[in-house]
Design goal:
mainly alpha, globular
Length: 231
């Protein structure tokens, strides 16, 4: 459990530093570097060979992962399309898509959706949570408990970026609205963590949750930009 606890703590500390101190500086580059360090670190300290390390953190069965991930991508895309179509008639959906961060990324939408999110967010976070942290959990916990731990840490990981999002949207993180938004974000991302972990376990490949994560973030941003352009 020492490795699980230490890695969980380091990830949460890094989330606070990255979002509240460093900000957007070298976002994609630094996260790619951290991704490499996580993989190398797992190989160096927890596995006897590169093949074993790759298998434990899900960097195998790529064709199977592609199939599962593509299916998840289609499902998520369809759900977001329905959300966009209903945005002008369902207030909660419109509110959800009214994130001011969409305006910040609108001018660089192609780069953000095809590079920043896939490489800087999805690959890094999936290697960290459904790769290394989940693999560490599997060594000392049952599958269900390992998935639960990684998902809860993933939910808590989103507290600092949610605080930043509140600030961008002009809402105090300590207000009732701000606190309820933070709690809601933790719950939603914890549930998403369970979904990504299920894809990882079911497919045997990290590629499946990476594609699902890309769909969730990139397509949601595109949907938000589209809805705001229509407003």
């Amino acid at each position: 459990m020492l490795a699980v606890t230490l890695l969980s703590g380091l990830l949460l500390v890094w989330s606070a530093i990255a979002d509240l101190v460093i900000g957007e500086t070298l976002y994609t580059s630094r996260n790619l570097l951290l991704t490499v360090l996580l993989i190398v670190g797992w190989r160096r300290y927890r596995a006897s060979s590169w093949n074993q390390a790759a298998d434990e953190i899900g960097l195998v069965r790529l064709s199977r992962g592609l199939r599962w991930g593509a299916g998840a991508f289609v499902v998520i895309g369809a759900a977001l399309t329905i959300g966009v179509l209903l945005a002008d008639r369902v207030t909660p959906i419109a509110t959800l898509l009214a994130d001011e961060r969409a305006a910040r990324f609108a001018d660089d939408l192609l780069f953000v959706t095809l590079v920043r999110i896939p490489l800087g967010t999805a690959v890094f976070e999936e290697v960290a949570f459904r790769g290394v942290l989940l693999a560490a959990g599997f060594r000392v916990l049952s599958t269900w408990r390992a998935v639960t731990v990684s998902s809860l840490v993933f939910g808590l990981w989103h507290i600092p970026p949610t605080m930043v999002a509140l600030w961008i949207n002009g809402v105090s993180a300590t207000s009732l609205e701000g606190l309820s938004t933070i709690v809601g974000a933790v719950i939603v991302t914890t549930i998403a963590g369970y979904g990504f972990a299920w894809l990882r376990v079911a497919s045997g490949s990290l590629l499946a949750p990476i594609l699902a994560h890309c769909a969730t973030n990139s397509l949601a941003l595109i949907a938000a930009v589209y809805v705001q352009d229509l407003a």
